[in-house]
Amino acid sequence: MSEITIHVKFFGAFRRFGESLDFPVPAGSTIAAVKIELQKKLDGYGLVSDSVLANDNSILRDGEVIEHDAELSILPPVCGG
Predict the structure, then answer these.
(1) Pick the CATH number of 3-75 from 3.90.226.10, 3.20.20.30, 3.10.20.30, 3.40.50.720
(2) In DSSP terms, which residues pair with 6 in a beta bridge?
(3) Structure pTM?
């Protein structure tokens, strides 16, 4: 199986890791699998599992499949009041 490159832009609490991160995943990975790999790259940072990944058009569901290189953003949950 071939690998693709995921480019993730960081926002909010994720800025502590810089502006972005590139990492490989197998082509055909689900968004859930991408989040697991991202969490590994961020030394187990738990906020990844509570956050969503989005592309330029929409928030991506965990079951969606990524077949090609992708530019994504990780959006942490927001508390308001």
Answers:
(1) 3.10.20.30
(2) 23, 70
(3) 0.93
